[in-house]
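Lecture 7 notes. Example A: sequence first, then its structure tokens.
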Amino acid sequence: MLNIRIYLDDNLDKESFISLLVKESFEVISPRTIGMRHKKDEEHLKCAVLNNAILLTLDQGFQKLHKKLNHEGIITIYQQMNRRKNMNDLDIVKALKNIISLSIELKNKILSLNDFDY
């Protein structure tokens, strides 16, 4: 697998999830470790751009931001009202690998990871 760089939004920045991603050869940028914790969405997107990273988030606010600047891609994860239907960390990693296996061009695009949870 290619070494894909992922920038996690605050809502996904947890050690257990980062460990799963790293185990699958993803390069992970954690806002917590680079002084970006609790910053505004636009600042997170700019940081992802500066680091040539795909932004991964649960926050739907990036729908409005993604056209404001060129980026490596934004992948959103939709949460259901029924928590049992939400993707868990393993589902998220599997769906990311599905996107990679399809060689989908992500540059300047926003995708829902839920569409690749199969």
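Example B, a different protein, same format:
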Amino acid sequence: CLIGQLKRDLESLLTEHLVSQLIKDLVPLLKKDLVVRLKRDLHLLLTEELVALLKLTSMVALQMNY
């Protein structure tokens, strides 16, 4: 279970890295404010996913204790 968790964390980190690379590549092509907005939206999405993952993890941990 822990290994699966680590794997997922790595995948999300890789995804985040790829997204930031993509944004860097697109910066010259886009207006600056659009890039900032895009980054913020992506960051919010990633944060929401992490929060959901934490909630799920804590729920599973609670069930394991019983």
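Note on Example B: Residues 8 and 14 are 10 Å apart (CA to CA). DSSP finds two helices and no strands in the chain.
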